[in-house]
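Friendly challenge for the regulars: who can give me the structure tokens for this chain first? No prize, just bragging rights.
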Amino acid sequence: APAPAPAPAPAPPTNQASTCTTPSFISAVAEAAWTNIDVTPDQGTSGLRAALNTARDSYPNSPVRIRLAPGNYADNLGSEIYAQRILRTSSTPVYVVATDRSPNSTNLGQGINLLGVSYIGIDGVTIGPSVVGAWTGSGHNAPLPLQAAAGIHVAGAAIYADQNAGAGGTLNYNIYGQYAASHHIYVTNVTIQNLFELDAQSGETSQGQGMDGMKFNQVEDLWVVNSTVTQTSRHGIDNVGVHRAMFCNNVISQIGGGLGIEAKGGSVDVIYDSNTFNRVRRVELGGEDTDATYYFSVDGLLDYEALRTIARNNLIINPREAGLEFSGCVDCSAVGNTIFYSASYQVPIDDGTVYGGDAIRVHDSQLLGASDGAGSDCQYWNGSDYVTADRCWGVGSNSPAPIGRVLRSRNVTVVDNVIASVNGTLGNSFGGSVKPCPLNVVNGTADLHFDANYWWNGANPLPTSGCSALPEGTHSVFSTTGATVTPGFGSTIIDSSASSLRASANQALKPPQGSPVVGAGIANASLSGFDRVGVPRRNPPSMGALEP
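First reply, four minutes later:
Bragging rights claimed.
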């Protein structure tokens, strides 16, 4: 495929997502300035949709706060709570807020789906039932798991989608791949739970991969903070073509066939900060195999899944396939995280063959075409409604679109992390030929920068064969000949319940003052000045997500 023509530099964002604090478009609105719309549970989910439409149509020039009274909002729409073209400014946001923000107090009977929106806040709602009825062997008694594509779904829309970008056999990049992003989206204190297929026993065991906790496509300036996603059959949080995003202090736990989080398809300047990931497949920097029509970058290039993604201060507990995975990620960093395999951790095995349990993976990705199963349609504004164009831009995911293009991982940094396995699972093939590895470079030639990482594999040394060589620097602590000294965590008991996971994990994995990881890290530009609980980082910093 021909190389895309360089695009003009984007205008500087007016409110770039660069910190975990509440964005100014919410916090700067004076209390007296809000126009309030009150919604009660007896109105059901249609009440929220009507309020969103009223905010759009009746108060276009005022900041609008939609206040949801506590209670259960039954699904009386028969579909997700869909709203479109709510285009606001920094002084006229729309803020959907539960008056009681505690989990399971304000329950929506369906997910929220927003298309072509800006300056939107969502605060304190719960989506999905708190419990699911008993498993019968083929289904569940009531209450049933929620059936929704995502708990929260926000997307941008294609521009010029009804024009032919492939006329004459040469792709016109002034048409193809051009999106109007949704932007300035703030999600906080949200609980999303139990979204999985009716024939699955749980979200974690589901192989359906049909339901995300949150999904963001072509979104710029995004914050997701202090929220919880549990028991979804696909991704905890899925991002495609997301620019400038902060994911902070969230809990993502017991996720099924998808990933804990990913940001791919041209995502740029995304930070995962101080999140807790528990029993997910892996935490992804970049992502695997983006459909060509969904790709959206800020520079017009099509040679990375993600650029400048940073994972820092995160706890990653009992990941099934890999703790951290870099896929098509350029200038990406994992700094100051703790990856922990507890005594109860079980390596995933299929027919006697280990297929996961790696600590870190690195590989390339690619753009998928229609023959690979990629979609070809997209949505665009026709002047009165968002409609579907198939094939999008007259081409979709077909030649001369840039299908099959390899997206290589480059310049990968892994610094100041603690990787600890209580039972020494790294290198243990459990009788098979495949073993969980400290590092698994699947393909590509990414330059790797590893230093000041602390490896503890229980009583076992790290493996010397069957895995990629660890390119650790002089400040790292690892051994292929004997066991390193334990990091000395305070406890190995972690309560996986959604209400206690974050606090119990912090307590269990906080190193004591005498731990060898304390003050053993090195300075790095991507390391936050504070650890995951707000304690100032030492100088030199401790390895891992927590200071003592």
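Residues 427 and 463 are 5 Å apart (CA to CA). The chain is about 5% helix and 35% strand. Your move, everyone else.
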